Amino acid sequence: MEKKYNFEDEWKARKVFEIFHQKQNSTFAFKNNSNYSKFLRASRNKTNNEVVIKITSSSKNFNLLKSHINYISRQGNIELVDSDYNLYSNKDEIKDACKNFNSVYKIPTQNEIINFRQKEKRETYNIVFSMKEHSLAPVNKIRIAAINTIKKKYPDNYFVIAMHNDTDNPHCHLCLKSVNKNGKRVNIKKADLNELRKNFAIELRKLNIEATATIRKNKY
């Protein structure tokens, strides 16, 4: 029996861009008339090339992981690439991608957590990569830059990534396993997210995409 798309994840992904645009256009950033004038001058001559990275959700058991993988792959209709550059392009192969998340460290199922009275933990980080002005960067280059960014920061953590170019804001979904191949669990904090944004912009510039990463104080 096929599972339906995870509309909650889809809503969260779209909400990332809505909130980002709202913050960019809100008046609180222009309290100072001098700063506002500088912004106007800069905006006339410069396209907004800010990168966007957002942790949209997480999976706390294997059932939720499979649901998220099915969503970002559109039930096998969108190709996945993993951290070892393996490709998964149909329903059967998507099942293999899910199984690969259980190598070294097994992610418990919902029943196992209940039956063995285990404490729920964040088993994956579900991350969206994009740009504010998405027309500046083809989604395939966003995928390349996202892969290089994550492999640089978390070289021992398994992940899969999918491109979504069928929306108003083309973007990539990356699902990162929290426990690496050495059994160490990563904990992504605000400073780590800022580093990811900075490196994502660097990787895009290597692909001849003009990109910037402004460090902000807001939480992810």
From TrEMBL:
<dbReference type="Pfam" id="PF03432">
    <property type="entry name" value="Relaxase"/>
</dbReference>
<protein>
    <recommendedName>
        <fullName>MobA/VirD2-like nuclease domain-containing protein</fullName>
    </recommendedName>
</protein>
<dbReference type="InterPro" id="IPR005094">
    <property type="entry name" value="Endonuclease_MobA/VirD2"/>
</dbReference>
<feature type="domain" description="MobA/VirD2-like nuclease">
    <location>
        <begin position="92"/>
        <end position="198"/>
    </location>
</feature>
